[in-house]
Amino acid sequence: MLDIYFIFALVVAVTVHEFSHAWMASYLGDPTPRYMGRLTLNPLAHLDPIGTIMLFLAGFGWGKPVPFSMNYLRNPRVGSALIALAGPLSNLVMALIFGVFYRYLFFNAGDLSQSSDFTLFLFRLMKTMIDLNLVLMIFNLLPIPPLDGSKVFALLIPGDYIEKLYRFRNYGYVILILIVFSPTLFNVNILGQYIIYPVVKFFSDVILFSS
C-alpha cells in the first residue's frame, strides 16, 4: 500500500524532472515548452497517467514527455542530449540536496529512539525523496528508447548509424515491457535486482556517507 511519503516524493521528483527538460529546451532557444505550458512547476502539467501508474505499480516510471523542436536547436544532436540529460541530473541534484538535510538532521537529532514523531517523519520523508529521485535518475538513463538515456547514448554513435538506430525505436517499448515485467515473465527482477537497486544503494551510501 502506498504511503504519503512515496506519493509526495513521486509528485515532486517527476515534476522537477520534466520541468528541467522544459527549462533546458527553453534555455537552448526553443520556445515550444513554454507555448505548451510545460515551463512550470505545476505537477498537473507534467504527470503522465501511464508513467505515474507504473511508478505506483513497479516503483519506476516517467512523466509526460516535454515537446521540443529540433529546428530551434543550434546543434540538434547535442541539444537533444542536453535536454534529455537535464531531467535525470535534476533528480541527482534533488537527491544530493535532501541528502545534505538528512545528514544535518541526523547529526543534530541525537538518540533517534527519543526523537519526536515530527523528526522521524522528516527522516522518512527525506530518505524517500533521496531513494525515489535516484530510482528515476537511473531508470531514465537506461539507453533504451524512448528513455532519456537513449538520446544521451546517441552522442556516442557515429552519425551514419543514428538513422538506422531510430528505425528500431519502437522495439524499445517492447524491451522496456519485458524488463519491467521480468519478475512475472521470467521469475527474475532484471531491472530492480541487477540494475536499479545496486546503483541506488551505491549513490545512497555515498550521499548519506553510509558504510
Would you mind describing this structure in some detail?
- The structure is a single chain.
- The protein has helices at residues 4-27, 32-35, 49-58, 76-109, 117-140, 148-153, 159-167, 171-180, 182-185, 190-208.
- The radius of gyration is 18 Å and the shape is globular.
- Helix 1 packs antiparallel against helix 4 (76-109).
- The relative contact order is 0.12.
- The protein has one domain.
- It has 211 residues and is mainly alpha-helical.
- The two termini are 30 Å apart.
- It contains ten helices and no strands.
- The longest helix is centred in the middle third of the chain and has 34 residues, at 76-109.
Q: Summarize the main sheet.
A: none
Could you tell me the mean pLDDT?
85
Strand proportion: under 5%
Poorly predicted runs of 5 or more residues: none
- For the secondary structure, the number of strands is 0
- Tell me the number of structural domains: 1
Structural class: mainly alpha
Helix content: 55-70%
Total helical elements: 10
From the alpha carbons, calculate the radius of gyration and give it in angstroms.
18 Å
Distance between the termini: 30 Å
Shape: globular
Order of helices and strands: HHHHHHHHHH
Topology overview:
Elements lengths: L3 H24 L4 H4 L13 H10 L17 H34 L7 H24 L7 H6 L5 H9 L3 H10 L1 H4 L4 H19 L3
List its salient traits:
single chain, 211 residues, mainly alpha, 68% helix
Brief account:
It contains 10 helices and no strands. It is mainly alpha-helical.
